Fold this protein.
Amino acid sequence: MKGANERDEREDEVLERRFDWALREVTGRERAPDVTAVVLARAATGETGEDPAARWLPRARWLAFAAVFLLGVLTVLGVALLRHAPLRSDASVDEAQQPSAGKLLEVASAAAIPSLPVDLKTVELRNQDDAAVTALAARCPALEHLRIYASVAGRRADDAPAVSITDAAFPAIGSLAKLHTLELLAVQSVEGARMRELERLPLLEHLRLSYFDLGGDQLQFLPRLPSLRRLTMELNMRLDTAGLAAIGACAGLRDLSLCGSHGAPPEAWRPLGHLQGLRTLDLSSIGAVHRGIADEATRQRFPQSIPVNPPENRIAGAALQDWPALTTLRLGASLMAPDIGKQLRARYPRLRELDLEDCVDVDDTTIAHLVGMPSLRVLRIRGCEKVGEPSIALLAASQQLRTIDFGTVSWGGHVNSPWLTLSQVETLLRSGKRVEWYPPEDRRYAFAALCRLHRQLFDRSEQVRSIQEIEALPDDVTRIACRDLGDAAAALLSKRSNLVALELINDSAADRLTGAGLAALRQLPKLASLELMNLRELRPEDLGELGRLRSLRTLRCVNIALDDKALAELPNAEQLEELSLAAIPSFGAAGVAAIARCAGLRKLELAKATQLDAEALSTLGALRGLTELDLSGNPGLRDRALMALRHCTALRRLNGADGAFTSMGLQALGEMRALEVLDLSGNAELVPSALLHVPVSVQELAIDRCRGMDANAAALVRDRFPKLRELRVADNDWVTDDVLRVLVAAPSLQRLHVSRCKSLTDASFVTIRDARNLRFVDVNGTGCISKEQHVQLMGERPELEVVRFVW
Amino acid sequence: MTSPTIARAAPMSPSLPDLAGMIRRHQLGLWRYVRSLGAPADLAEDVMQDTFLVAMRRLHEDRGDGATAAFLRQTARHLFLRRRRDQGRREELLVELADRWWHEHAAGDDGERWLAALRACVATLDGRAREVVQRFYGDDLDRSATAAAMGMKENGVKTLLQRVRALLRECIERRLGGEE
């Protein structure tokens, strides 16, 4: 059995590899490179093609190194921290271990440096020495983002043995005047004597000094970095009181992470109170972890025995300062007392995300305070063993909370929140919370099923009504709904490069949306969905920008001044698949023709476009890839327009309600064999024989208010559509008790709407009661089920939902 | 040490113009083959270059395109496995399986027929299946970015991709008459 599984797994992987190539080629993503010139050039220099093997021999030496390294490791907790870090939304040490995932160009050989483009902006030097840094700085003076990484932990399979730069590399780094991000990771041979060279970097915004050790003496340069906004210093085993004082003097800091560092007593944290602009602070695992040391030389700088982390170095409530702008606070594995909830609520009015993982004293009273924080959206409470059933009710009742994290660690035998039951999870899901949890094995499958059931809740947008609210949104928010905001908001939003969906509904006198705002949105590379509604200042010429939003897949416009000229640009949005235009009377036939040129459209909604005549609508027949089309409320939907759709054979949903076509026009549906949902309501022209043109594949059919139909339609419905699950025949006087008896005999019918069918009498009660397939019936406005009979039905047919009266 | 020269290589190898012709004739098929073994694009290009360099040194006579293609594949496979040898026996098995498949289904026409069937099958996809193919493979988004773009969880994307691949495989089998 095990062998068969392994074989299946292997075959799956081979298949995955094959498709990885083939689908990239088929979708045009990739094509075979022409290597002729480069091979000839290499041949001309005498290369034989077998040299690479030699490059891989040093790996054997690495094994020896690794053995030494393992001996020197004090504990694996540091590595564990690295592995845990990717769960966080901001940059993490783990990111350094997978640089290829980012956009940095990786340079793992000094020989490659002379051939790098001189205008290169981003690079990762991997396991390189001082000479390589000097060469890089000379070759690429325009560098903006530099990462220097020594693979002392979490090394990749293809890594050479770890090499670290030393202090001698810093003059070269300091010469990179355009640098705005510098990451020095695990470069444990750096002792910090020449860190002052970094003061020459006027644009440096983000400095990351992780997995190596600098004390207060070496960190005194920090306040002299004029542009520093973000400081990340994870797993610094020498962070001390003087170091914290230096950090506290960096007045411009917005984002600070000291995760896993050595720590200091509570009074040493007081200087950090000067950081009044701080938005994100990570104090997880301070004074609680150790990490390995790479080599003997580095190890000499540390005591021979395991360094002691004094308990007073752990973060406690007393270490926290007033940070009025703080939106994210991570306090994992700290010594927080139960009353910390009260303190956080009072001190951090803008806090959106709070991490209390492994804070073992946090309990239900803490949660009771936290749910009262109006700004809180994300709460992480893995490993909070004293949190229990009372908190579930509190969390579920909280209106503002979106996400509760009970632990998602999936490695190393971790068990996340084992006390959590599926019933409690469902309570939270039902209340609209996203539950993040990698459950114990016995609950894993059911948890996944529950999440699937409630998935739609997870896609909710963050709604904002002010610039300040946008600024406070964490970087990982991908869906934003703006209300009463315009250009100023668009300018801010344009910097959120991971934005996927955006709603701009109503602007205001204080902030109008204009063409400038729309143009700014062009900078969003992933923007796939855009909704514009009630935007008064947008002129038709501004809306031409819509065609330049190249990543757009879904566009919904309601009540804006879209005209033919603006729509003419729309076919340029080549990714567009879904388009909805509602309450827009300002476009005409030319606009529809432009829409018809959007060849990738799959879903189109042009409801109530009363200005369009049959001629204009008929051009939509060119959209043969459409799967959903809503032309309801269009008096122009006459036979000519409908017949033009006859080649749209991929249609699955068609809404022609309140159209003016006749039974003849329905011939257009003949070839639509994929049609599942059809709405023909409100059309007095249709007679029963019209149903003969409707494909038998239909599963949902609406013929409300079709006064031209008669009792003969019932038998057709019953006999022609074997898959029909839902039928709407509301507001039709021809639906009598006899007709209803025929309709409920449709073999697959589960949902039936007969509201306001005045001809129905209480004789139909028995018909409905005995229709065993039915699961839903709407008899509102009819006399067929009395209140008493309704009660009786609830007893006899508990699975049948009856709507008999609507307020 | 002196560098090897063209003159040194020339007597036992195709001339550079011949080499250029050989590369042009075989690089498409070789690229597809190496990619189908599981080499990422950058590694595939390296392997392909090295393969042609080896061929230049070792192919002493023109044995026809079929034999040359077989030699190139064998060399490329060998070079690829050398790069991956730290990944052990399992990698060898995977490459063996992929190689066998290529030999049976794609070697004759550089995979054109199979790709044509795949193209036709991709065209029949719709909804999320089509979207995930476009975003993940066409737009080269990683799984998390694909998940974000589609409003799904990362695991959901993984599952969806698995299903789509299985669907496509079945579809190709049908189109190729069960040859797959």
